[in-house]
Design brief:
It is built from 13 helices and 19 strands. A hairpin with a 2-residue loop joins strand 7 and strand 8. Helix 5 runs parallel beside helix 6 and helix 10 packs across helix 13. The radius of gyration is 23 Å and the shape is globular. The mean pLDDT is about 90.
Length: about 475
């Protein structure tokens, strides 16, 4: 399915009295107004709308109502707080955000949902703002409106993408889905994605639950899984980050234990239920295939060699109780996830932005990548597709060489691609982790997903990077 685009995309900037600038952008969407409004009123909408290239974190997000509050933190680890109050809330037609505290001297943002006809509606964002008092008289308006153009182009496109996807399942029942690793980069995005479609998400946490949609579980012992009896699916994403430091013996054991022991505990309790979940979707990794120079492999390939391959095999084996219990089980072998502020892309951005990006090692190693939104869609597709089971590769159809990835990223960022990182330096700096993750690679095909009819949103690397980094226009 080709990427659904905003229809009749229009932007305008107007100078108002009292040094107020009005920025307005609208686009027509191929969905009814009720669907557009429901998406915005869902609890996960604000997270879906935050620009991924910016360091923004949601501190407070009250349900949309007159007088309710949203608070964001801009920048990490300290950052600036931005607090807004919701006004003029009309569930079918729109709402207003008024800044109470933040970086601008004045900020009022109106969201309008406008009927066109039938399955067509218009999303209009109108922002009246004044720059910070110390800067408003000495900076041109374009300095402030240019980032808004970039941000709202992304917001409107993601809204279109999500609504187009959810409309595929408009006739299906709303699901109840439990998610482990819900605070991680993929897990938090998945929770937001599912709730904007009207599904109920139960976050499995290891601390004290903070509400009815959280449930405490134990990665190494007994726990009460009875609230998950009969739910539609469990998505298991929990696991230690494999790329956050050198692989010492202790760290390798934590990586293995967090995946294998956690999966074993989770599946033992779920399988013991009289009415277990209907599906178990377990995150796995293309590390199963090891480092391979080629040719491309798919789910039919034998396991590779090395630490990651061993861990991945044990990880998938730990879910055997679900298979024996008759629960449909999917091992989603996820490739290199493109997210602007995490994973491989997050680590590469700063070097490339300062002109220090380029070839790593030989540059010939394969990079089997996938955009984060296609990961979310693949997880949801796995829930909704009864015939899908066993290993499923979650990678884009066109893996690339590392040097081609580097050149594409540099082009999107308008930076040179000239700074090599030789293999000996990688081994010195990162040890075994660098050997496996930076110098190694594999060429993996998504045969099972493609055969099931899964439509990739981003089969093309450049388009994926442009969207994720806000460089579409």
């Amino acid at each position: 399915m080709p990427l659904a685009r905003c229809l009749d995309f229009r932007t305008s900037v107007t100078e108002l009295p009292l040094k107020i600038i009005r920025f307005q952008q609208e686009c027509a969407l191929p969905v009814a107004r009720d669907s557009l409004a429901a998406w915005h009123f869902a609890p996960g909408a604000i997270q879906r709308l935050l620009p991924p290239w910016q360091a923004v974190r949601v501190i407070q997000n009250d349900p949309l109502a007159n007088g309710s509050i949203t608070e964001l933190q801009l920048g990490e680890p300290l950052g600036l707080r931005w607090t807004a109050r919701h006004e003029a809330v009309e569930k079918s037609s729109g709402f207003t955000d008024r800044s109470l505290r933040g970086p601008f001297a004045h900020w009022v943002h109106r969201h309008d949902f406008i009927v066109q006809s039938g399955q067509r509606s218009t999303l209009r964002d109108t922002v009246d703002f004044a720059p910070p008092l110390s800067l408003g008289t000495i900076t041109p308006s374009g300095l402030w409106t240019s980032p808004l153009r970039r941000m709202f182009a992304f917001r409107h496109q993601r809204t279109t993408n999500d609504l187009s996807w959810h409309s595929r399942f408009a006739g299906a029942p709303r699901r109840v889905v439990a998610v482990t690793g819900a605070s991680g980069a993929v897990g938090s995005a998945l929770c937001a994605f599912l709730t904007t479609a009207g599904h109920r998400v139960i976050r499995l946490v290891r601390g004290t639950p903070r509400g009815s949609d959280e449930l405490r579980w134990n990665t190494s012992g007994r726990w009460d899984a009875s609230p998950l009896s009969g739910i539609d699916a469990v998505v298991h994403l929990a696991g230690e980050n494999i790329a956050s430091g050198r692989w010492t013996a202790q760290r390798k054991e934590r990586i293995r234990s967090s995946r294998v022991d956690g999966t074993r505990s989770l599946c033992a309790e779920l399988a013991a239920l009289a009415n277990p979940p209907k599906a178990f979707i377990g995150a796995s990794a293309i590390g199963w295939y090891g480092n391979r120079a080629g040719p491309a492999v798919d789910e039919s390939a034998a396991r590779g060699e090395g630490f990651l391959s061993d861990v991945t095999a044990a990880w998938e084996q730990a879910s055997k109780p679900m298979i024996e219990r008759g629960v449909r089980t999917v091992h989603l072998r996820i490739g290199i996830v493109l997210q602007a502020r995490s994973g491989v892309l997050g680590k590469l951005l700063l070097p490339f932005l300062v002109g220090a990006g380029g070839r790593v090692g030989s540059g010939e190693q394969g990079m089997s990548w996938i955009h984060i939104d296609d990961v979310l869609r693949a997880l949801h597709w796995s829930i909704e597709t009864p015939l899908l089971h066993g290993p499923v590769n979650a990678v884009a159809p066109a893996p690339v060489r590392q040097i081609d990835f580097a050149r594409t990223l540099a082009s999107v960022l308008r930076r040179p691609c000239i700074a090599p990182l030789p293999s000996p330096v990688v081994r010195l700096l990162f040890g075994e982790m660098g050997e496996d993750l930076l110098l190694g690679g594999s060429w993996v095909k998504p045969t099972a997903l493609t055969a099931s009819g899964f439509p990739f949103l981003f089969p093309d690397l450049e388009a994926a990077l442009r969207f994720e980094l806000g460089r579409m226009r």
